[in-house]
Amino acid sequence: MAKHVYCRHSTEMEVPFFDVDAMHIVWHGHYVKYLEVARCAFLNEISYDYNEMKRQGFSWPVVQLNLKYVKPAVFGQKVRVDLAVVEIESCLRIDYTIVDAENGKKLTKASTTQVAVSLESGEMQFQTPDSWLKAVREHHSFQAA
Fold first, then answer.
1. Which of 44, 103, 113 is nearest to 77 (CA)?
2. Domain at 7-138, CATH homologous superfamily
3. What's the CA gap between 25 and 19, in Å, rounded?
4. Which one of 29, 63, 84, 119 has the lowest number of neighbouring Cβ atoms within 10 Å?
5. In this predicted model, what pLDDT tens digit does every residue of 57-84 receive, in sequence order?
């Protein structure tokens, strides 16, 4: 059964020299940074970035990260990170696909899960805050379940 996708977003970037090893391929740990760049671009687009999360009284730590490397990205390559928001009510779960921006070939698949934590009490929230739900539901690509 296919997952429901609430929102989609894409971010393009070029692999910089400082992200590659001697063979000019991206070091595996830098893919996490690419996910973060795409996630931050999406959060900025919905006007609910990490500063807004803090203003609303929450932190959103990553509690799970999964990566599957399919093919390495290389120095100078233009890549696109496509993200799909697949859970919004109990957590923020995003599936990612990193592809070659020119030919669309898949390079990496990934997912992250973040949970809202009250800054006041330090307690994990079992439902996401209403402010988060409102922001994501107003995104132009939002699709109700």
1. 103
2. Hotdog Thioesterase (3.10.129.10)
3. 8
4. 29
5. 999 999 999 999 999 999 999 999 999 9
